[in-house]
Amino acid sequence: MTNxxxxxxxxxxxGLEITHLHHYHMTLQSIPATAQLLQQSGQALAQGSRSxxxxxxxxxxxxxxxxxxxxxxxxxxxxxxxxxxxxITALLSEAPQIKHSQEWPRGYRGDAYMMDLIYGTGRTxxxxxxxxxxxKSIHETQADWATHRAAIRRLRTIAHAVDEQAxxxxxxxxxxxxxxxxxxxxxxxxxxxxxxxxxxxAMDQDPRSLALIREKPTNDRLELWEKSIVSLLRQPxxxxxxxxxxxxxYDYLQDRTAKLLTSRLFELLRAGGKLxxxxxxxxxxxxxxxxxxxxxxxxxxxxxxxxxxAGGLPEGMAQFKVYHDLPNExxxxxxxxxxxxxx
Length: 343
Hints:
The protein is of the alpha/beta class. Helix content is 46%, strand content 15%.
């Protein structure tokens, strides 16, 4: 028997043909099933049981992802403005991550405080101590999302890549972290823990992130650069590094800027040096929720897009590879790894 049950996107569209959705003005009034889903979701959240909260949020993620894929950008942005003002947002904002994203108090998205909430580091426990039962249930559900698990794996991937490069070079190496945040990858890095590096440069435009790093035990080989990407592109640097990485920066860079930055960072590599950058992929199923309820749009890239970023590197000097974080449907990250060849 053929399954004729509607998809979440068709359900949200209230029976309208998905291929015709772009002809409609996207409001909750024009697709009443969306309002019905949000009302039902709000009721489920208000009940507060962990299983209800988890199932409700995961269903919302799936439905909003599919709807976003079917709508044009103009229609999605119009609907997004209504979704973020919906009463369900008041319930969702009891969770620390969602509350933080409604303000983005540092003036930009994806700040280091938010990443601490995702990693479960820093003052996360202190924050949860003042969070309602519902807020904690939402936080626990988000912690199990593939995006959040990928972000934590990214810390380990970077830390292990540093260690591998240190072993390959065979002597203390120079490391540059671009848009470093709170440098939480250090907890996983043997090279840092054993202090077997020449210098570790932490670069970020946010002085508050650097101030927290400054609280770490004194190390004269840890250097803090308060610089923006613009200054890095405009002002040539003469420093040479064995390993350079950018964990979450490229999720916010347009293609032209990302390609220019890749070339500039390659120039800073010593012979045999390595550059590693990460980017979330277009199959990030949580993207609809992140945009609608957390005002957190990213620039997603697939393997071909990441390959394009290496297109401006000098021929004969650069060797690169692109690979996924995971080889299955739970993958959310793609990496570009560039090595400067020895002469």
